[in-house]
Amino acid sequence: KDNCNLEALHCSKISSEEIRDSCVAELARIKNDVAVCKLITGEKTKGFCQEQLAIAANNHDLCLAITDTYWRDNCDYHLATANNKDTYCSLIGDQPQKEDCFLKIALATDNWELCSTFESPLKTEDCIKSIAVKLKNPTICQEIANPLGEDICLKKVAREANNKELCQRISFKEVKDACIEAFRK
Description:
Blueprint: H1 2-7, H2 17-31, H3 34-37, H4 43-57, H5 61-64, H6 69-83, H7 86-89, H8 95-109, H9 121-135, H10 138-141, H11 147-161, H12 173-182
Helix pairs in contact: 2-4, 4-6, 6-8, 9-11, 11-12
């Protein structure tokens, strides 16, 4: 009986709280009315409802009203990456999701400065290297703290930019030799 009422969106006639909450969330989506989400009793389902409407409306203010941390983080993430708003990434509590958010925006906007938000130096280096190679900009390689990583970045930029002269700026002999050799092929 509850399933029939769910399909018909007769939410008030549903006895199961979980099914009723799902029904109300679907009703809120159809009506595109976040106020309907307030009728949901379960925090997780209410958060899901609010997140879905925030994304549909592309309205970050709606994310701020979500009390469930999982759905608030997802809301911040989706609107940050959809709009390239790194300030929304800062609001995410889950560290891996926060870093993924910054990475997506850094790569989408070619903003290497966002690469410094990672806990892992290797992840920071990979992010900077990706942007330097994409932009064919050897200057960005200087932002890599590890000298070997900087040289590897220069080698990759040299290849991508088809600029053999960049090989001469490489300090590590093995990397410099490999860079020069790559142009002999």
